[in-house]
Queue: 2 jobs
Job 1
Amino acid sequence: MGEPRAEITADSQVARVFEWRRGFNTIHLIHLGVQLGMFRALAEAPDSTPAQLAARLGLHAPYVERWCMTAYGMELLDAPAQGCYRLAPFMDVILTAPSHPRYLGSYVQLGAEVATEDFTRCLQAFRTGEVVPFQGRGDAFNHAIAGSTWGLQVVTAKKILPGLAGLSEQLAAGGRLLEVGCGTGNLLVQVAKAFPAARLVGVDIDTESIAAARKRVEDAGMSARVQARRGTVASAIQPQSFDAVLMVEVLHEIAPGIRPTVLSECAHALKPGGWMVIVDETYPSTLEEARAPEFKFPLHTGFEELLWGNVIPTREEQERLLRGAGMNGEIQRSLIGEGFTVLTTRKP
Ligand SMILES: C[S@@+](CC[C@H](N)C(=O)[O-])C[C@H]1O[C@@H](n2cnc3c(N)ncnc32)[C@H](O)[C@@H]1O
């Protein structure tokens, strides 16, 4: 720790900063490609020239030409012949298929639009300590969040919950699941599709998110067994009435001071033997962990969401919160995807 490694030179350090700077440009290049439909058009008509792409999308041809050349250089595009471009392998799914779990267009959008603005505001916030919280940022923000957590929602509904032997059978037989911090309701609908007999309630403290969640549930024709309620767990939920409480990317969004109360309310909502399933990020507990690959994603979320007032919990805090809420059973912990932790435990 702190010891300079032998292979590090001034040139290699300069090269790293240049590479990160190119990464910044590449995020904006991808964002432009997604928003202007260039990736999608190349998926539909591979081996197009920039002029054809520009004509098809009504864009300025010289700009499209430069975009294609740069995207080729960054290996987002391939060129089967001089002057024709197609998507590089797998980029169709990653950049043009919003319903696929690997889609990253919304995550890139969150960086290019929301994070870029937040980092600019940080120049002031580092002096004042001001916070611009998640709640009240509005519809476009809520939907950008929902889009960027889409893959995790699909994995939760189709893999994590069905993989929990015991709970999976309960939900299949009409069990009740509470989603805390349901946002715009995508996950509620995904879980309802995965378990067609289960009865679900989502709660969230954000008014606009709950309005969107209600519409989402109604549009899916699921209002009879899926409800979205605005409020805290205690205000919206009967005690001991759920077989499972689920939180996806929510624990780190809850203000640290009220986390023990929210977790206790969640535990209270569970029937004895009920399951608490938390999918969230885990902050490095030590300096060594801050450089470990599995902590890169939460480390950066913690920085990106500084202005939102979010504090990513460490492993020790997660466990303290669960124990403090009376969840004294064994805590199962696993790591998925880019750096998400899945925590499961049962109420005694
Ligand atoms: C990152 S979003 C995740 C939304 C959704 N679970 C998803 O995966 O897209 C976090 C959500 O938690 C909600 N939230 C934060 N604190 C909360 C609390 N104390 N009770 C209920 N919801 C809360 C926020 O309003 C927000 O909608």
Job 2
Amino acid sequence: MNTPPQFEIFLVAPPGLEAVLAEEARDKGFADPAVLPGGVAIIGGWPEVWRANLELRGAGKVLVRLGGFMAFHLAQLDKRSRKFPWAEILRPDVPVRVEASCARSKIYHAGAAIQRIETAIREELGAPISAQAEICIKARIIDNEVTFSVDTSGELLHKRGHKEAVGKAPMRETLASMFLRQCGFDGAEPLIDPMCGSGTFVIEAAEIAAGLHPGRSRHFAFEALASFDPAAWEAMRAGGGAAACAPGAMACAPGAMACAPGAMFRGADRDAGAVRMSRANAARAGIDTITAFDCHSFADLTPPEGPPGLIIVNPPYGGRIGNKKLLYGLHAAFGQVLAARFGGWRVGMVTGEPSLAKATGLPFAPPGPPIPHGGLKVQLFRTGALK
Ligand SMILES: C[S@@+](CC[C@H](N)C(=O)[O-])C[C@H]1O[C@@H](n2cnc3c(N)ncnc32)[C@H](O)[C@@H]1O
């Protein structure tokens, strides 16, 4: 019997969060994740590729390294690209496109490299080339070594397929999930986002508690690759999470379908449109029975009955929405509400402006590294349990 092929799988992470993604990969049973700049490398075969796309909350994309060769000029790139075993990866009936980058190499013109590789694929395999193709081959030419990868995700993985409605400055689901992980959230404690916008943190938290796979509802590029096995994929996807837990239990173990007697995962926003959006997004994600969204200002926020948990929040900040000066007062008032009413709760605040975190007066530990998000950099500020 042939051994199934194994290759390097690269899980893309925002710079600064590679180690957090590696921890998630380890927790989800991927062996020996290696932290690299911009992501995490693991070794596996196609089933691991599918599972990484299906299960990892923090990865932005899953790339597969296909191999490569040395090329010192374009004619050599053309010849060797023609001999590359494209038929093992690509289908002749599925459109494809190529992206390239060059560094420290005799071939320095990415456009010319793309043209050679695309021509080789079209003429040798017969696959149509299209700028709109979902399937993308990435060629990196560094020190005259050409390495091909294929993007197995397609659309970025923060698109879980449940969120149609988004607000002015939504947090990416991938980033939200990694910030939750950094706050020590594992689904077994209540959570509140008092400025929830489109509900990203609350919905991610509820899905984690319910043991639902983030990719359960969406399509992936790997479904159109030569290696795809629809029956094996369906079996993998159907096997995901969501076992029942004891009725009346306050919290469910991670991996069990949450069935707490009230909503453990709550969002609020003073904007009625945001609350409507959050409810609709939660319903599409199928976690509306364990979430609740209310329309009010944080000034009216009170802790629910039961044990304390995590307050996670991404308040408005100057660079993107709102006026920075007005925001200092808002942050100070927010900090006072939490300090006065939320003893025992931990706080995680994501902001692009450290001075706004300081304005809350909350006892934040030194923040995490700046993470690129929507053209800005954001940082996670965390407290321990408030007194
Ligand atoms: C940066 S957005 C949050 C985005 C959210 N994390 C998401 O993924 O969609 C900030 C939110 O704070 C809300 N907000 C601003 N001032 C507020 C207040 N005083 N009370 C409650 N919500 C407020 C805004 O309506 C906005 O939806």
